[in-house]
Amino acid sequence: MKKLTHELTYPGATVEQVVAMVSDPAFREAVADYQGVVRRTVTVSGEVPAKKIEVEIVHGTDRVPSFAKKFVGDEIPIVQVEKWTSDTAADVEVTIPGKPGDMKGTARIEQRGDAVVETLDLAVQVKIPLVGGKVEDLIVGLLAKGFKAENKVGVKWLAGEWS
Questions:
Q1: How far apart are the C-alpha atoms of 94 and 32, rounded to whole Å?
Q2: Where are the domains positioned within the chain?
Q3: I need a surface site. Which of 17, 73, 130, 154 has the fewest CB within 10 A?
């Protein structure tokens, strides 16, 4: 099992702005598009504190190591489900449908000085004998790249610079 903790920092923002942004399907679609995914679907349902956000993105495998391609196939679908229990806290589950493993953890949004920080804490577990650890490393890397993309798009989004 691998642990992933990632902080997304939004300078000059308020908690309310970041909560509105992460709840906006157009923002989630912009993040997926920025990552160059093959396909994407975003669903936001319910009201806070019972809001549910589901993002399904499909990555190609052109940059995936050959040892992993036989396990993941030609595409890597990733489904991220966030169940927000308040404006600023969520349970997060990430799955790769049809594959042995999962990622579970939390997301928290908090004001830190003049910035807002969203902290994601996930545990990644892949149940494949012998190569599970390598696949976990691959998935942690994909998730970290995704969070970095979300942060980059988010900073521009909040500044009104995303088109």
A1: 15
A2: 2-158
A3: 130
Q: What is the pLDDT of residues 45-91, one digit of tens each?
A: 987 666 999 999 987 777 666 666 666 667 778 899 999 999 999 99
Say how far apart CA 20 and CA 91 lie, in whole Å.
Answer: 17
Phi/psi of residue 158, each to 5°?
Answer: -65, -30
Cβ atoms of 6 and 144 closer than 8 Å: yes
Architecture of domain 2-158: 2-Layer Sandwich (3.30)
Q: Are strands 52-60 and 115-126 parallel, antiparallel or unpaired?
A: unpaired
Which amino acid is located at 128 in the chain?
Answer: I
Q: Supply the pTM of this predicted model.
A: 0.87
Cβ pair 148, 139 in contact under 8 A: no
